[in-house]
Amino acid sequence: MASRTKTLLLAHGSSDENWRRTFESLAAPTLASVPDSTITYMELCQPSLQQSIAEGTAKGYSQFIVVPLFLAAGRHLRVDVPKMIQSLETEYGVTITLTPPIGENPHLGVAIKAVVEDTLEA
Amino acid sequence: MASRTKTLLLAHGSSDENWRRTFESLAAPTLASVPDSTITYMELCQPSLQQSIAEGTAKGYSQFIVVPLFLAAGRHLRVDVPKMIQSLETEYGVTITLTPPIGENPHLGVAIKAVVEDTLEA
Description:
122 residues; lyase activity (chains A, B); metal ion binding (chains A, B); homodimer; CbiX-like (chains A, B); alpha/beta; globular; lyase (chains A, B); four-stranded parallel β-sheet; Rossmann fold
């Protein structure tokens, strides 16, 4: 059987329910369009990255791609998340690939321009 | 003379030079397209919001629109930035309008889907 890959959109997490709802809306078009994708959180929200890896592994996924819903790489993405991933790979015997944060892709700058234009026209 | 409006793209700020470069790239399409726009920072980078308001006021701007380059509103946007803005309005005698964070506009979710599709095709 071919190994199955799951895509995890990784948000920071917050105790603020509105914050979480914004991220769920941000993820919605991707989750509706990309098979085997879900949203997960670094801290303060569930499912945590560990819960998502545990659940995915139990369902037969052996590879995970983690796409950070962060505009840029700060300490979390440079240090904390890679450490978490290394530990989870060992614990669950899976391969987890961390991609650059979404803000490093030119699509985001183009979208920001559209948002600002919307805002100024409103 | 009609009052002049300046658009400030407000990023969080970081001591990490790569982080700052990512935000400069994110802002570039907007700055190239929207007249009287610039990037400014809440902390750790310059120009600070205060510097940008001071400079804009000196150049004759009396209205500012602050568009947060944040995916969602956490404590900074709910509490800290409104406080800074209120204080700057009083100090400089200008009007400063804070818009929702970019992540609350549907363009962002669509862009994230495009980024994830790029990532999975790569």
